[in-house]
Amino acid sequence: MSISDPEYVEMISHPFQILNEGFLSVPIDIPGTTFNRALKASKFIHNELLAIIRKRKMELEQKGDSATRDLLSHMLLASDENSNVKNEMEISTQVICLLFATHHTTSSVITFILKYLAEFPDVYSKVLKEQMEIAKGKGPEGFLKWDDIQKMKYTWNVANETMRLTPPMHWNVNTTHRDPKYFPDPEKFNPSRFEGKGPQPFTFVPFGGGPRMCPGREYARAQVLAFIHNVVTRFKWEKVDPCEKVAYNPSPIPSKGFPIRLQPLQNGFI
């Protein structure tokens, strides 16, 4: 939506957190309940998005081709085979679904990748080596490209093992993810499980499978790997609380928010 104001992003992110907390709450709509707070947050978000949508519609009408071009503009301009366009509430709802589906899941995966890298120095060293080789080929000001993402094979194995042990949406995927029939020694963090052909079909399903596989899989992969690349090539970190517990609501989240100590890297070394 081309929103760059950090204060506005912070203002609208809090209602999203309340909405997330109400996602699997008991549907009792009385003041003070989680469900009631989530409904109020949803209404607030819709009103904010509708204001943004109406402002963008005016911009498209007035500026034409020179107006901002992003996903929101595309949704406003797209039409079906009968030349019908989506109404404002439909677009607002789809934007909420997109943000809800991509933010909490990817942030959960990223958080736990950092957690496991802090716990397993040998895995961290391999990820660092892979990412530094990519960084050296680009120079200090170089941006990641799609070809670079494809080179992050070991890092993606680490992400997959993270999602196997701590799936971003804690549904019934653990019926196979922790089944020793498919994953020997299932409680062990072992990214090498995903080398070569990897797990058997439909045993590892953080994105679902078959024709209903999550359409945002590649987007999520690029988002996770780009973030990890930029963190690993710039910092080393350690956990503040080694005994921090994990809660689920519905995505897994460290109970204290996963506080860490960061140290800057210089040419791949502390």
What would you note in describing this structure?
- This protein is mainly α.
- It is 52% helix and 6% strand.
- The protein has nine helices and four strands; from the N terminus they run H-H-H-H-H-H-H-H-H-E-E-E-E.
- It has a two-stranded antiparallel sheet with strand order 1-4. The protein has a two-stranded antiparallel sheet with strand order 2-3.
- A hairpin with a 3-residue loop joins strand 2 and strand 3.
- Helix 1 runs antiparallel to helix 2 and helix 4 packs across helix 5.
- The longest helix is centred in the middle third of the chain and has 32 residues.
- The radius of gyration is 21 Å and the shape is globular.
